[in-house]
Amino acid sequence: MSTSTETKPPNLKKPKVVVLLSGGLDSNLSTRLVLNQKIEVEAIAVKTPFCDFDCGKGCGHRVKEVAESLGIRLKTVYFGDEYLAMLKNPKHGFGSGMNPCIDCRAMMYKAAKDHMETIGASYLVTGEVLSQRPMSQHRHALRTIEEESNLVGKVIRPLSAGKLPPSDAETSGFIDRSKLHSIVGRSRKEQLALAKEFGIQDPPNSAGGCLLTDPCFSKRVNDLFVHTDGVPTLNDVELLKVGRHFRLSTEAKLIVGRNQSENEMMKFLYLDDDFSFEAIEFTGPLGILRFKNDSVLRNDLMPVAGGIVGRYSDAPRGQNIKLTVLHQQKESRIECQMLDNSVVRKLRI
Ligand code: SF4
Questions:
Q1: H-only helix segments in 20-61
Q2: How far is the centre of ligand 1, averaged over its atoms, from the C-alpha of 84 (Å)?
Q3: Whose CA is nearest to atom 1 of ligand 1?
Q4: What is the distance between the alpha carbons of residues 251 and 248, in angstroms, rounded to a whole number?
Q5: Ligand 1 centroid vs 50 CA: distance in angstroms?
Q6: Cα 347 to Cα 181, 263, 294, 341, distances in angstroms
Q7: pLDDT tens digit sequence for 37-51
Q8: What are the angstrom distances between the C-alpha of 246 and each of 38, 157, 283?
Q9: Second-level CATH architecture of 16-208
Q10: pLDDT (0 to 100) of residue 52
């Protein structure tokens, strides 16, 4: 029977942390280093319109697997229009391509902070390695990202902690700094050794960056933003990922599929206001002509678009080509001159 003299046991439960998890190796290792200190961890994974997860090219499918192997809960957050609005004019500019890494990471940190507040976690853990990436992982950038997300002192970077100013978690003794690492730079030697220690089979290769770091893709993104009043739509962005792209005028762009799966994806992305083109008598790709608004050049550009789509069909070079055109659910037919390679090349984005 309890009496009034009984005292409750002290609450020995340590505060939780949230880890920004990708399917890559670094955040996996960081999580393990924290779990090793008996700290409770939950994960958040962020998907932007330009990457699967975090900076992981194609590693998105692994993130659930990684969370499962670590035995931690995972929340997934999808950035959409708000990400495109940021990309229109990122406060901290771009990297070598159209990658706004500092603003992008700040958005990810903010999403993680929201999750921390929801579940009552005190710190954020990331897999960042000092000087591994040119834009977002040098000392000053890491600090800027913390400032932008109001997380100054609240971020634990277990792989590079020894080379960075201690976080509040380290100075308060919440986590033992002496058990964290001092990795710097792009070599993955130390991470691979650590992966071996943890018994990680087939550690994934270094992921590089998202699509926005790809020079060819960046050209398309830049062209889209330059020619869009306001912010492009997610449909516009998805269309950037398929086909060959041609800038026909400041108001018109043509996309031509490169294979059957791209043609299928383009059919899915086709909007009623678009014009789709398909050759009638020969096998050929799907073309989508998209105008920014009611262009006075519409009639002039139809044969140009048809001539390019025809160029990629099986029809013999140099002959006229007949195509069906679908617009506003009405189908019509046009016949136009197939365009020369030299003309087609000039219009390619
Ligand atoms: S490469 Fe840069 S822009 Fe792309 S997901 Fe990573 S931080 Fe964001």
A1: 25-35
A2: 13
A3: 209
A4: 8
A5: 8
A6: 51, 20, 21, 10
A7: 999 999 999 999 998
A8: 55, 44, 21
A9: 3-Layer(aba) Sandwich (3.40)
A10: 54
Domain ranges of the chain: 16-208, 242-347
Look at phi and psi of residue 7 and say left if phi exceeds 0, alpha if psi is from -120 to 50, else beta.
beta
Instruction: Tell me the pLDDT band of 205, cut-offs 50, 70 and 90.
Output: confident
Distance CA 128, CA 108 (A): 13
Residue whose CA lies nearest to ligand 1 atom number 5: 55
Per the listing, tokens 């964290």 go with 180
Question: pTM for the whole thing?
Answer: 0.91
Residue 140 CA: distances (Å) to CA of 50, 54, 212, 312: 25, 20, 22, 49
Query: HSE on the CB side for 130, CA within 13 Å?
Result: 17
Pocket test for ligand 1, best of 82, 88, 104 (most atoms within 8 A of CB): 104
CA 95 and chain centroid, separation: 14
Ligand 1 proximity of 311 Cβ (cutoff 6 Å) = no
pLDDT tens, position by position, 219-241: 999 999 999 999 999 999 999 99
From residue 21, give the alpha-carbon distance in Å to each of 40, 163, 223, 256.
Answer: 15, 22, 32, 36
Q: Is 51 in the pocket of ligand 1 (CB under 6 A)?
A: yes
**In the numeric block, which tokens belong to residue 33?**
């280093």
Q: Distance, CA 54 to ligand 1 centroid (Å)? A: 7
Give the number of residues written for the chain. Answer: 349
135-159 pLDDT per residue, tens: 778 999 999 999 999 999 999 999 9
209 in contact with ligand 1, CB cutoff 6 A: yes
